[in-house]
């Protein structure tokens, strides 16, 4: 199970970085989204997955022997909220930048008018 | 009593939220923020004195005992930096109404500003790595808001790159935390430090250490990860640039200082030697950048980078003298970068251009601004008896003690070049024939801008002149950092 998750995270990272290196703004934003999902899957995997017959709950009560580590789940929750917020901000920002500068191509958004 | 550790985070956050509700009443928000910032500074001074007299404040939020819950640790290092942050904030909040346009001021400037202070204080005070990430995001979110304030063409263009680079390094930060979690099974810094000593796999931990360094170095603008910094920093309003220059890169340096003295002090040979090399390259490339341009704002922005090099050099040398040099330089640099960005903002405002070739003869009309800038250049370059000198002296003493001669030469040469890049602005911009004022109507406002800057600068001079008075406490912080057991004991209470 860990292996599958690791491969999946790897695929997300690869496609994310491929998209990050594109010129079109929207693709770059999709790339950041993919990378953050890769990172989240990664945290989940690093917390050691408990693969019982029907999985294990992330709770620790008396009598429960097999349980999933709850900390990574708490971390992911926080991290998802943050990446959600940043992505939405980035979309708005990209929209405004494209509207005002008249292009969504990163090549044409280079800063040269300061020299 | 330990609840005091949360105040520097919660109060600005609440004030920021309050400011958002009344953002349309400009005068009210402005005066309210000014009063709040000054009162908050006094409160922070009081907390600082408490920590100085009675030792670290440790707050276990929700009453969860140390390794399990979220903890906030207010030790001397954190509180010194929080205090400096608030001093810079006071100068900025008094400068802000003079340089912001009405529209910028009413579009939540003060909210973002107070949130930034809350985020920066949080990053200094937090006691676990994941919360460091969370507070990084809090301060970055506020900075994203500040950087696009004003909606300019260049601003939007540069902010996009700024947001992207920070987003990428944040995601790498989360990944690295999860690596470390899988090795040591905790995110609490004190417990990580304790377990890192026990874990056998040193190779894995060194890899993780380098990954952490990569993340923090991106935030702190260390060579070769500094390329994103100068342009986004100069495109927003001068007040925003001053806040960024004074606070944001310093949070990165603080994180390196904290993690590499507390947690990753195992493989010093490899990691810290790497730091020394990178520090040398950072100084050289930063100063080359500063010399390469005629844009005065860009000169100041590039001057952030060699300062980061100096601080990294102290961490790399890893002795008590050099660490105290780093701390001294950190405090000095937060203040002086605030001063310089505000000053250059005022200069660009009165000259009407940021191109050095189009300026000249400003000193006839603006003597106060001119001499302030001259003194600030001397402070930045580290001419005795100003504060930059003390920090550099400690760093050089540390490196001479370890016979690292090359880094000494690089540091001295780059200090000289920093002075050259600054004096170039003074000579080209201020000297020269007395010319007609290009914007006479800006004269009064331009001179009024000088006052908050003068206050901040006099503090920086005090930091240099009164070095004997400050040095013992800075030395005790360095001693404390070199003995991580004290931190671990104070948090885990063994």
Automatic annotation (TrEMBL), chain A:
It holds the Pfam family Oxidored_q2. InterPro entries: CPA3_antiporter_subunitC (IPR050601), NUOK/Mnh_C1-like (IPR039428). Its main location: membrane. GO terms for cellular component: plasma membrane. The keyword Transmembrane helix applies. Coiled coil: none annotated. The chain crosses the membrane at residues 6-21, 28-47, 74-95. Keywords: Cell membrane, Membrane, Transmembrane, Transmembrane helix. Belongs to the CPA3 antiporters (TC 2.A.63) subunit C family. NCBIfam families: PRK08600.1. This is Na(+)/H(+) antiporter subunit C. It comes from Halobacillus mangrovi. The lineage of its organism: Bacteria, Bacillati, Bacillota, Bacilli, Bacillales.
From TrEMBL, chain B:
Pfam families: Proton_antipo_M. The chain crosses the membrane at residues 6-22, 29-49, 69-95, 107-126, 132-150, 162-184, 204-227, 239-264, 270-291, 298-318, 330-351, 363-385, 405-427, 448-471. The keyword Transport applies. Signal peptide: none annotated. Residues 127-417 form the NADH:quinone oxidoreductase/Mrp antiporter transmembrane domain. It is found in: Cell membrane; Membrane. Keywords: Antiport, Cell membrane, Membrane, Transmembrane, Transmembrane helix, Transport. Its main location: membrane. One of its GO terms (biological process) is ATP synthesis coupled electron transport. It is a multi-pass membrane protein. GO terms for cellular component: plasma membrane. GO terms for molecular function: antiporter activity; NADH dehydrogenase (ubiquinone) activity. The keyword Iron does not apply. Belongs to the CPA3 antiporters (TC 2.A.63) subunit D family. PANTHER family: NA(+)_H(+) ANTIPORTER SUBUNIT D1, NADH DEHYDROGENASE. This is Na+/H+ antiporter subunit D.
């Amino acid at each position: 199970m860990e292996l599958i998750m690791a491969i999946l995270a790897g695929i997300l990272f690869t496609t994310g970085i491929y998209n990050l290196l594109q010129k079109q703004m929207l693709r770059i934003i999709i790339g950041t989204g993919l990378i953050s999902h890769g990172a989240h899957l990664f945290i989940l995997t690093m917390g050691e997955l408990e693969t019982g017959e029907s999985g294990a709950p992330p709770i620790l009560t008396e009598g429960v022997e097999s349980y999933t580590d709850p900390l990574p789940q708490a971390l992911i929750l926080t991290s998802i909220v943050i990446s959600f917020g940043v992505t939405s901000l980035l979309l708005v920002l990209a929209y405004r930048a494209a509207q005002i500068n008249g292009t969504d191509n990163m090549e044409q958004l280079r800063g040269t008018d300061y020299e | 009593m330990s609840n005091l550790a949360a105040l520097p985070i919660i109060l600005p956050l609440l004030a920021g939220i309050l400011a958002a509700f009344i953002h349309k009443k400009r005068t009210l928000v402005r005066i309210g923020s000014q009063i709040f910032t000054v009162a908050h500074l006094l409160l922070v001074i009081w907390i600082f004195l408490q920590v100085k007299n009675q030792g670290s404040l440790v707050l276990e939020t929700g009453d969860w005992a140390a390794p399990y819950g979220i903890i906030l640790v207010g030790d001397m290092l954190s509180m010194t930096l929080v205090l400096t942050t608030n001093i810079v904030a006071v100068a900025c909040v008094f400068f802000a109404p003079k340089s912001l346009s009405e529209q910028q001021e009413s579009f939540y400037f003060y909210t973002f500003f107070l949130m930034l202070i809350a985020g920066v204080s949080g990053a200094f005070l937090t006691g676990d790595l994941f919360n460091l990430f969370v507070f990084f995001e809090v301060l970055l979110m506020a900075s994203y808001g500040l950087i696009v304030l004003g909606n300019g063409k260049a601003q939007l263009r540069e902010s996009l790159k700024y947001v992207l680079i920070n987003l990428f390094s944040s995601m790498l930060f989360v990944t690295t935390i999860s690596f470390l979690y899988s090795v040591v099974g905790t995110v609490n810094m004190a417990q990580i430090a304790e377990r890192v000593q026990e874990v056998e796999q040193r190779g894995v931990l060194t890899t993780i250490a380098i990954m952490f360094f990569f993340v923090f170095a991106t935030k702190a603008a260390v060579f070769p990860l500094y390329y994103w910094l100068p342009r986004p920093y100069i495109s927003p309003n001068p007040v925003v640039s001053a806040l960024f220059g004074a606070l944001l890169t310093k949070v990165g340096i603080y994180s390196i200082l904290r993690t590499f003295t507390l947690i990753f002090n195992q493989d010093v040979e490899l990691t810290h030697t790497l730091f020394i090399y990178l520090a040398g390259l950072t100084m050289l490339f930063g100063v080359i950048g500063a010399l390469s341009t005629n844009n005065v704002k860009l000169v100041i922005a590039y001057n952030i980078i060699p300062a980061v090099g100096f601080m990294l050099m102290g961490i790399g040398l890893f002795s008590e003298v050099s660490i105290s040099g780093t701390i001294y330089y950190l405090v000095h640099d937060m203040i002086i970068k605030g001063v310089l960005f505000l000053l250059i903002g005022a200069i660009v405002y009165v000259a009407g251009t940021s191109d050095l070739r189009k300026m000249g003869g400003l000193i006839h009309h603006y003597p106060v601004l001119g001499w302030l800038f001259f003194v600030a250049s001397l402070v930045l370059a580290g001419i005795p008896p100003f504060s930059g000198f003390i920090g550099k002296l400690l760093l050089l003493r540390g490196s001479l003690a370890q016979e690292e001669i090359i880094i000494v030469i690089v540091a001295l040469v780059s200090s000289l070049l920093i002075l050259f890049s600054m004096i170039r602005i003074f000579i080209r911009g201020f000297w020269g024939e007395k010319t007609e004022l290009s914007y006479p109507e800006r004269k009064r406002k331009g001179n009024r801008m000088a006052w908050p800057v003068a206050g901040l600068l006099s503090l920086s001079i005090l930091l240099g002149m009164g070095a004997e008075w400050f040095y013992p406490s800075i030395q005790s912080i360095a001693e404390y950092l070199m003995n991580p057991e004290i931190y671990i004991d104070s948090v885990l209470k063994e």
